[in-house]
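Subject: Protein entry, chain in single-letter code together with its fold tokens

Category: Structural biology, sequence-to-fold work with a learned token vocabulary.

Notation: Tokens come from a learned vocabulary of local backbone shapes, not from coordinates.

Start of record: The labelled sequence and token lines come straight after this line.
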Amino acid sequence: MTADLEPTVAEGPLTTEFPEGLPIGDTWTATPAVEGVRFPYDGTVIARAPVGDTALARRAIDEAVAVRERVGRLPSHTRRAALLATHDAVAARRADFERLLVLETGKPLVDCRVEVDRTLLTLQTAAEEVARLHGETVPLDLLPSGEGLIGFWTRRPIGVVVGISGFNYPLLLAAHKIAPSLAAGCPVIAKPAPQTPLATLWLVHLLREALRDGGAPQAAVQLVTGGPEVGAVLTTDRRVGAVSFTGSAAVGHRIARDAAPTKVLLELGSNAALVVAGDADLDAAADAVVRGGYYASGQACISVQRVIVVDAVREEFVGRLTRRVAEVVVGDPRDPATRVSALIDERSTERVRTWVEEAVKAGAVLVAGGGVTNGVIEPTVLLDADRSLPVWEEEVFGPVVAVRSVPDVETAFDLVNDSRYGLHASVYTNSLDTAFAAVERLEVGGVVVNEVPGFRSDVMPYGGVKDSGTGREGPRFAIDELTVTRMAVIRPTTTTKEP
């Protein structure tokens, strides 16, 4: 189904409040180049964005190192107040952020509204976690040598943090890098994806204004744009305490190798599976595949990609799924009714189209979609795609789901685990035994029962296993990752007893 554009959603010039250049140190610095940011749906240039270079990346690290101790000593109330003020500032500009995200990413408006909601929750939760950053006492006298000693540990900032985020959720992913870093007392340097720098620039500007108003250094939060050479400078400088990266597995693995021994947190790709058991509510499961497979036009690392159905319900489930896919609205992302629109660029569209064609040529049955209309890939369902093909084995990152059937749930769990990825998976079932077996057996960072694998509350620990990454996000858990324990052992008196 094609959506008609609501003109009121798209009218008017794009306006933003942040200065020109890049926020480096306590000021904004001119860049050697600017580059057009394009609206993926029609290719029009919506704004000109600053493009940084390696010299600016090195300067940002210098500035972050210079304020590291000061940021680490910022009072809790100052860090908390800055995050809450930023939350309020984003909330006051909610509609503008939503519109900017649509134009910058090409995602449907409904998904951009969710992104702003989740960003607000992330900022608020990070502010609340400032009050929970504490340590514990340790009973050192469990050994005789510890008698008379007092022991306790505290959590201290890990140092300068580099946060590199992907194009698909630029505002939310940046918030998950920046807010926990500041909450932990770490200066942070953000690097957004080259295609989508604008929303992150605006977020950083608002946070820097809040820091300034609270008497804190604006250099606590900086941003550098640019290509891989900029990222290489930011991630290989030994003065950096931690690198937090969200993106592809290939790039993440390279960062981990090049950054060693610096701590690296990786949120990488996946090919999330949804299992449909024989006792599942098939309407709910079909709805979950549509909701979970096509939101953000499929450009989410935990969107449904692999659907594994028990043989006994295969035909009935596929029929219900095919009917539901036909209802998905495709078209201009500015229309509130649209659910699938253009991918981030033509190269991505061509890659996904090629993968689908390759699967069909190898024997997969195309039961829905498969075509490209006005540059938009139709919501696609493939049946019985070869397990060695990219549409099953790799991360599609587009509106494509592949369905296979198996004899039973145990075999389904084996098939879920037969992947180099392990971020989220879900199972639809009415059996508690099956639900708990999934939690026990599935080799993923998160198991979701009777909901899409793409469900994520921003307060929960989020991350994967295997090639899907290391470390956990969610403000509480990210703050743990970005702090280190410092043990204190104190003998209150050195007076020795008479023999």
